[in-house]
Design goal:
The protein is mostly helical. Helix content is about 85%, strand content about 0%.
Length: about 270
Amino acid sequence: MILAYDFFQHALIGGLLASILCAMIGTYVVTRRLVIVGGGMAHASLGGVGLGAFFGINPLAGATVFALLVGWGVDFLTRRQVREDSAIAVLWTFGMAVGVLFAYLTPSFQRDLTGYLFGDILAITTGNLWFMAVLTVVTTAYFILLRNAIQTIAYDRSFAVTQGLPVRWLEYGLTILTALTIVCCLRMVGIIMVVSLLSLPQQTAALLTRSFGGMIWVSAIIGFLGIVGGLMVSYWLSVPCGATIVIILVVFYIISRIFTTLTLFVSRRTDR
């Protein structure tokens, strides 16, 4: 029985923690329309991975630093009249170029690069799980204590400023949590697809519920089901798990879109 194996148990626990983390952070990111910024942070983190490998430090630590620098860098540039999409493009491509260059300069690391690009949820260690657990607790506390302020910023940042909320400091905190969440999920789906965990379950949840809190709960459930489904399909068919998780999440979104469209159509026909 596959559940008897430690690596599969670690994968399930990691999937649960990642689902909760991404549900909170992803709901903010999607509601605030920052998915492309999250994608830039994720892809640019490759620069930190490459530098970490080259200088002999933990690649995930390097990825965290790069993700943070990109998140803050986009904010810095957009406040200086640089278009947001242009700022993201510059930092995104720079980070990936740096990562590829230093990975090339570290021949012994090149075989491990695939794991960071595409993920390997079955390689999650006990240390990874502890880090994810601590981050989940911290993020949950942050969202519980500051829920109203975070929700206000997510829906209307300008209004939040007029209400005297410490918007800038709250955004700094959310950027840090987003970067750490991205790094936590690299082991699961990789740099290339990590943004999917921050967007697909949340966009699906947005079709099924209209409240900020409801999106968090529903997206956590959808995310976990997608991860478990991806694990099982990967095991049965011997295919990459990260890609399978993303495909299943896309299928969930398509089914939900069809369901809500048909429900709306039937409702309108009934009203007539």
